């Protein structure tokens, strides 16, 4: 059962499209969030937008940064930088750091949520294919996990607009 007052939730790629949509919902319940971003510009923007929330600039290509940002974390919502040339390795670095937190120390880490893509087994879509390897690594890690496989359509669906309409109609291009 989540402890909304004490659990520390890490959201990676916090200034990106997926995480930006998730953060306001988590802030309604959880008191402690840590937002990871890659650039100082994103760090300033997130700190300004979410005062009182911990924002950390970290490079997921650095195993030591991954360990640092996972320190004390209960649950990590892992979003890899899309189309990064080493996207698979970034995910593996985060999973390795989570394993270390969970099994090698008395850390509170309990769950990894990985935001993948629908049909990660499609090898011709290189950004999908790299997520397939991260999924496999997570499944074999021994961690408690959830793998989300959202579709591109879900990210672009204007849910608020549709929910506000008496008779919802989605105009597809």
From TrEMBL:
Domain of life: Eukaryota
Record's GO cellular component terms: nucleus
Protein name: NAD(P)-binding protein
Natural source organism: Aureobasidium pullulans EXF-150
NmrA-like domain sequence ranges: 6-149
Family membership noted in the UniProt record: Belongs to the NmrA-type oxidoreductase family.
Entry keyword annotation includes Chloroplast: no
Pfam families: NmrA
Keyword NADP: yes
Ranges in a coiled coil: none
InterPro entries: NAD(P)-bd_dom_sf (IPR036291), NmrA-like (IPR008030), NmrA-like_oxidored (IPR051164)
Protein keywords: NADP
